[in-house]
Amino acid sequence: xxxxxxxxxxxxxxxxxxxxxxxxxxxxxxxxxxxxxxxxxxxxxxxxxxxxxxxxxxxxxxxxxxxxxxxxxxxxxxxxxxxxxxxxxxxxxxxxxxxxxxxxxxxxxxxxxxxxxxxxxxxxxxxxxxxxxxxxxxxxxxxxxxxxxxxxxxxxxxxxxxxxxxxxxxxxxxxxxxxxxxxxxxxxxxxxxxxxxxxxxxxxxxxxxxxxxxxxxxxxxxxxxxxxxxxxxxxxxxxxxxxxxxxxxxxxxxxxxxxxxxxxxxxxxxxxxxxxxxxxxxxxxxxxxxxxxxxxxxxxxxxxxxxxxxxxxxxxxxxxxxxxxxxxxxxxxxxxxxxxxxxxxxxxxxxxxxxxxxxxxxxxxxxxxxxxxxxxxxxxxxxxxxxxxxxxxxxxxxxxxxxxxxxxxxxxxxxxx
Length: 417
Description:
Layout: H1 12-25, E1 32-44, E2 47-55, E3 61-69, H2 71-85, E4 94-104, E5 108-116, H3 118-138, E6 156-161, H4 166-176, E7 185-190, H5 198-210, E8 218-223, H6 237-244, E9 250-254, H7 262-266, E10 269-271, H8 274-369, H9 371-376, E11 381-384, E12 387-388, E13 400-404, E14 411-414
Parallel strand pairs: 3-5, 6-7, 6-8, 8-9, 9-10
Antiparallel strand pairs: 1-2, 1-4, 2-3, 4-5, 11-12, 11-13, 13-14
């Protein structure tokens, strides 16, 4: 059934105006503190536009509303928020804002933000940071890089930084122009150090260093001074996990003394300025240099002491050498004299014994061939005038011959009788 009473119809504009007036007069819709998570945040013309979202425990959105911070208000709230939280007002963070409900006849339903409570966001950021740290600890990687040992002379340094950053210049200048003239080799791996590209850029630099890991002794990640709001990228699980598991000691120098990021929990060494990062390396190499200098001095002292002792010993030997030589000669002479007398007596005895034995042998030989030995064997010897006769034709007639025997008297015969 259709109604023909046109007097009961209102225009859409009028209806929206009625809604706007009703909402404006409704209690509890003006200056209400609301919590939510930002999404699709953008700044245009000085105004900040965003979506406020509420999610359930599973992360599923259950409520959504447009919100705006007008330029005059945003100019005050933005630096206040960044100063307190260390991050700019951006998407994907939890905030607490004071809002008033506004319904525009054309633009519709919008929440107009008049104030912001940064403490709520700080607590949420700290909760996220603590959650990342707890996850890394549960996975057993939180302390990996912090437990790495340093080499004695960390001179080959891989640096992750923005090329034109003042902090990088301060680091290089402080490191290379040191008063001890210690030498370092620094290699820059460029990376964005703020904004949405920070995480993939730094991870990419770590990957590039890993390809040449044997060429370096350590890694330095530095970012100089600036807005604390630019540090939010370093509260990232993937980046922290890469740093925690990197096989070289990592020095992190990001932000200011009061700033803390997840990287501070996983890096081998945490400092707050690029210059302080350079000081860490100078202290380590300086300690090695001092150890070498100390060892050199100790060696020199030991050598000097040894030489002095040898000189004294040599002087003593030089002084004692003449008397020592005389003593040696005298001792050897007495030894030779005693030994010579004994040796001569022994030699003479041996010679006499040998000569006696020789004479005895000759005597036995002479005895065996003597005429007496011949007679003892049953022979006799006939002599003419004392000369043995071996040929009877030489004996003259009537000559007297004497015949000798082994025993008994000689027999005297006249030859020819």
